């Protein structure tokens, strides 16, 4: 019997649970995409903003703009 592969999105969220705030809405349509999730955390740390999580995306809001990255599957 094969072992089930863990869901990568769930695994990512569990590993980063202390740094994510789960919300019920995703980033707005005009949000700017960032290539890597690590960069979203770096930006958030630099400006001391929370990182939000919704489904397969994480995002931050800085000065009225929203930046997001998709969690790699």
Average of per-residue pLDDT values: 94
Number of strands: 5
Low-confidence stretches: none
Helicity level: 25-40%
Structural key phrases:
five-stranded mixed sheet; 5 strands; 2 helices; alpha/beta
Your description of this structure?
The chain has two helices and five strands; from the N terminus they run H-E-E-H-E-E-E. It is α/β, with parallel strands linked by helices. Strands 1-3-4-5-2 form a five-stranded mixed β-sheet, covered by helices on one side. Strand 3 and strand 4 form a beta hairpin.
Task: Give the secondary structure arrangement, pairings included.
Elements: H1 8-15, E1 21-22, E2 32-33, H2 37-47, E3 52-54, E4 57-62, E5 65-70
Parallel strand pairs: 1-3, 2-5
Antiparallel strand pairs: 3-4, 4-5
Short description:
This protein has 73 residues and is α/β, with parallel strands linked by helices. The chain is 26% helix and 26% strand. The protein has one domain (8-70).
């Amino acid at each position: 019997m094969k072992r089930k592969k863990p869901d990568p999105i769930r695994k990512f969220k569990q590993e980063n649970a202390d740094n994510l705030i789960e919300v019920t809405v995703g980033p707005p349509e005009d949000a700017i995409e960032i290539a890597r999730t690590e960069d979203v955390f770096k930006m958030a740390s630099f400006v001391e903003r929370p990182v939000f999580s919704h489904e397969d995306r994480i995002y931050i809001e800085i000065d009225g703009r929203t930046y997001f990255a998709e969690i790699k599957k």
